Amino acid sequence: MFLIRKPCQIHSNQLCAPDNTMEKEGICKFKQLFSYLGCFLRKFMFSILSVGPIPDHIAFIMDGNRRFAKKRHLLEGDGHKAGYESLISILNYCYQLGVKYITVYAFSIENFKRQPEEVQLLMDLMVEKIEDLLRNGSIVDKYGMRLYFVGNLGLLSSTVRAAAEKAMQATAHNSRAVLLICVAYTSSNEMVHAVNQAIRKNEFDSVEEEHIEKVPMIKINDIKRHMYMSVAPDPDIVIRSSGETRLSNFLLWQTAYSPLYSPTALWPEISIWHLIWVVLDFQRKYAYLQKKRKQP
Amino acid sequence: MVTTDSIRRSSARIAQMPSFALSVLWFLIHLLISIFFIVLGIADAVENYLISSGFLKRYDAINVGKLRYLAIVVDSEDAMQINKALKLLQWLTDIGVKHVCLYDSEGVLKKSKEIILERLSCAKLYEEGDEKSVLDSKTMIIEFTSQSDGKEALVRAANLLLKRLRSLGENQEEKIFTEAQMTEALKAVGSGGPEPDLLLVYGPARCHLGFPAWRLRYTEIVHMGPLDSMKYGSLLKSIYNFTLVRQNYGK
């Protein structure tokens, strides 16, 4: 039903300083009206999209922060900060649209090979932004979001690992929306970890010699169960910004039937229109993808 | 005469209208998108003609040596058209591609491998170690894979590692296998082919349909559309675009 369930609320203090002159007040009112219209248009567009199937899980490869910084003549760290702002926008859009699970590729194990200063900058930014997310009134509160940090967390420094674990504990009771942040992650590392866990949990060792042949060996569900990403269903869509057409060791096990989209925009330039376009195309292919998923 | 029922019916109709209006708008948007793709298809057909006829000079000299290993994923229903698959492989031979891995999840192409190898004059079946061999200008090595080489192969490799652990009498709790050992176990169970540089998907959507995950880490994935409408120009263009790609590998 086309109802604006929650009317667009634009907080005037976000757009207007308290000590405005008459002229600035006029500009301020215009900005408020513009924001309200933008919000209304977005909700209207999402209402139309909701007539068709909405993906339950979208995964993002957030590529292009460094190129963005270079393009705009910024410091490299500012590119990553712009990337974070872009992430918050996209999360807002996705959760408003009705997507429940979002996975983001924040930091690959391969990224540890970058310059130590850049790695440290990213780690510091991660800790800072985790603290922001846990504050009252953040997007985590707004959508009742549960956070998961997915990857080989043992490779992170104790500070970052502690911040990640604190965030996971603090949001463990939330269930309306889920954000999976892949950090110190590669798909090959995840698969080997799952195999190791499946081997460890197998009862092979405790069985007597004459019964060994009758013991069930490792099955596909044993490996699936121990994947870091087993807390979420397989993604419906993977979006990689910057126009690159590879998965770069991200969710290789989980994306057999997940179409990959490669908008050319750099991650900080990703907009609601890219998301709308991807969802529309997903709706065109939905029947085929469902048929493939249901095949044995 | 205005009755309670008629008021109720009118209210119900009015309440339904916004949903109906949204559905119409949704349908119209999808219709516009379909028209857009039809126009795009026409533009692609024109470009394909120009490439195939040699009018676009940049596609004349492609550095195909940069493409060491090509994978083709075909939707299993499309894969039943063996003639199409043969035509595609013939095109690849003409372009000069040396190593091809054909994949369809149900193994339709695998079951037809004898027919395919027989009908292609200069093709031979992949054997382990072939990726290092130097081939003459005409021979192409073809590997046939299916979902049994994907997740199922990883399970077989895991069981092989488990058996080895048991036979060595090592403690299951303490032993941690590495990625290198996993690669070696996959080779031992017959699924140890090389990682493709480029993967072309022939089907309705750009998904890898279960291609062996272990071999897809840095593979460029390109969507070619259904096998029915495959075009030589599009194939040449995809390979040419691949030769322009530069990867950082995470650095």
Automatic annotation (TrEMBL), chain A:
EC number in record: 2.5.1.-
Keyword Transferase found: yes
Cellular component per GO, a single term: endoplasmic reticulum
Superkingdom to which the source organism belongs: Eukaryota
Recorded metabolic or biological pathway in which this protein acts: Protein modification; protein glycosylation
GO molecular function, one term: ditrans,polycis-polyprenyl diphosphate synthase [(2E,6E)-farnesyl diphosphate specific] activity
CDD domains for this protein: Cis_IPPS (cd00475)
Enzyme class name: transferase
GO terms under biological process: polyprenol biosynthetic process
Family annotation (InterPro entries): UPP_synth-like, UPP_synth-like_CS, UPP_synth-like_sf
Pfam families cross-referenced by the UniProt entry: Prenyltransf
UniProt keywords, alphabetically: Transferase
Family in the record: Belongs to the UPP synthase family.
Protein known as: Alkyl transferase
Lineage: Eukaryota, Viridiplantae, Streptophyta, Embryophyta, Tracheophyta
TrEMBL record, chain B:
Keyword flag Transmembrane helix: yes
Cellular component terms (Gene Ontology): dehydrodolichyl diphosphate synthase complex; endoplasmic reticulum membrane
Transmembrane segments: 20-43
Annotated pathway: Protein modification; protein glycosylation
SUPFAM superfamilies for this protein: Undecaprenyl diphosphate synthase
GO molecular function: ditrans,polycis-polyprenyl diphosphate synthase [(2E,6E)-farnesyl diphosphate specific] activity
Swiss-Prot/TrEMBL cofactor(s): Mg(2+)
UniProt KW Transmembrane keyword: yes
Catalytic activity: n isopentenyl diphosphate + (2E,6E)-farnesyl diphosphate = a di-trans,poly-cis-polyprenyl diphosphate + n diphosphate
Keywords: Endoplasmic reticulum, Magnesium, Membrane, Transferase, Transmembrane, Transmembrane helix
Main location (coarse class): endoplasmic reticulum
Compartment(s) where it occurs, according to its Swiss-Prot or TrEMBL record: Endoplasmic reticulum membrane
Enzyme Commission number: 2.5.1.87
EC supergroup of this enzyme: transferase
Family (UniProt): Belongs to the UPP synthase family.
Database matches in PANTHER family: DEHYDRODOLICHYL DIPHOSPHATE SYNTHASE COMPLEX SUBUNIT NUS1
The protein, known as: ditrans,polycis-polyprenyl diphosphate synthase [(2E,6E)-farnesyldiphosphate specific]
Species for this entry: Trapa incisa
